[in-house]
């Protein structure tokens, strides 16, 4: 078995944790083998192949004979479903969300973009008071139903079931007469040169409108989204005010963001 890279704990408790550790090995080694992973995690080769198929759909890996290779940094990513996204890097997303929610104070007006990380932010807002929050995410809105101190606004529009998000002219128009203190923007991909991007043209357009009406743009993302690009650009990286991510962010990305005057907050998992 190839023991290159960080040791992996065999006491993995679930699918999400196992896949996160496979991602770590891919990034450290560049490739993984099905038989090695099967032995390492004490699961069947069928289970590992399912994991690699999932990671290929996420745009993290490319399957090869007997295993998988890490995606090149410029490889476009394929849009996963909300269910797929919610099962990956869950503990990191919750850590990121906890830090993000602490930035929201009484009197703030915020936008929460649709997504699984912003959903976690909404879950952390249950005890917030005197906050106005707008979202285009059905899952985010549902989480905010428990936050009695938060006035909830919805964009309206057409529902994309793939992402549980609303989009379209009605959604765009709903934002034009507002001004917000902060936008919390989840991303599908972020690259220093290519900027922030997403899979869907309509969502990219709505995200751009969100950026126009927000005083501060705060990107919330786990480190696996860096050095990747999707088809539809939202904004240049230079327009971001803050990034909240984890310590796995590539060193070049961290340096580049900070040199550009963008505040980067790194969180610990757990």
Automatic annotation (TrEMBL):
Keywords: DNA-binding, Transcription, Transcription regulation. It comes from the Bacteria. SMART domains: DeoRC, HTH_DEOR. Residues 15-70 form the HTH deoR-type domain. InterPro entries: AgaR-like, Carb_Metab_HTH_regulators, DeoR-like_C, DeoR_HTH, NagB/RpiA_transferase-like, Tscrpt_reg_HTH_DeoR_CS, WH-like_DNA-bd_sf, WH_DNA-bd_sf. One of its GO terms (molecular function) is DNA binding. PANTHER family: AGA OPERON TRANSCRIPTIONAL REPRESSOR-RELATED, HTH-TYPE TRANSCRIPTIONAL REGULATOR SRLR-RELATED. This is DeoR family transcriptional regulator.
